[in-house]
Specification:
Helix content: 10-25%
Distance between the termini: 10 Å
Strand order of the largest sheet: 2-3-4-5
Number of helices: 1
Structural class: mainly beta
Mean pLDDT: 90
Radius of gyration: 20 Å
Strand content: 35-45%
Number of strands: 6
Amino acid sequence: MKYPKEVRTYCPKCKSHTTHKVKLVSKGAARPMAIGTRKHERSLLGHGGKRAGEKTVKKQGKRQKIVMECTQCKKKHERVIGVRTRKKLEFA
């Protein structure tokens, strides 16, 4: 899905419509001592195999999240694109 690099939209800090730079949200670094990571590591121990066979279910696309930065006040806020997409957003 193509999305513009700059969007004119509402800025809650300026309280008016201004141009915003748009980029895709990137995931932060994983914390190795977080409880979820430790649980996952424990589940990988041992010889627990996976069930053989071909999967018939198609994977569902994700809703993409973007960060918009106001060109005037430099305030950043997030927005979720409402459409589920298979591939990453392309900025045109």
